[in-house]
């Protein structure tokens, strides 16, 4: 299973959008970069499906363009005009060459889900490896309307409960990719989130 960050060259603010090439070629989030369709075409001619971690603009702004270009199925927890398959906590979704468990992980966004297999975690913004706040084990911000640090903490705990011990690849919505002990990264994220301290200096 090959994974490419097709928004890596973006100069505008966007999430990481991951193209997973395998039995079911899948785009995990689409990002907000207007070059994403061309970047996908650098690797494949077709995309079988899109799976969305959540629908914040930096994750779905190019959904119209990607759907027009590839006409994929679209899996999402929250309603959307392009959604062809509604997913819920506990569902299974094939991404690339592996089957992933859908874990409902709100707090940063009410429609947030993560996808975890025996080897790999696609976690959107619920946890990240590194960002502007922390270099090893961070978490999505919760200081904006509709967000909840308490619910985010519960989501990270749920994710740990559902994550196999052998997961070694972590692909988050922001920051770098990680290969190693993913459980340790997520546990570090949890301990920081539990402190309830502001993630950013301007967070209230």
From TrEMBL:
Gene3D superfamilies: Ribonuclease Z/Hydroxyacylglutathione hydrolase-like
GO molecular function ontology, one term from the record: metal ion binding
One Pfam match: Lactamase_B
EC number: 3.-.-.-
InterPro entries: MBL_Glyoxalase_II, Metallo-B-lactamas, RibonucZ/Hydroxyglut_hydro
Lineage top rank: taxon: Archaea
Cofactor(s) the protein needs: Zn(2+)
Domain Metallo-beta-lactamase: 14-174
Keyword set, alphabetical order: Hydrolase, Metal-binding, Zinc
Protein name: MBL fold metallo-hydrolase
Organism for this UniProt entry: Halomarina salina
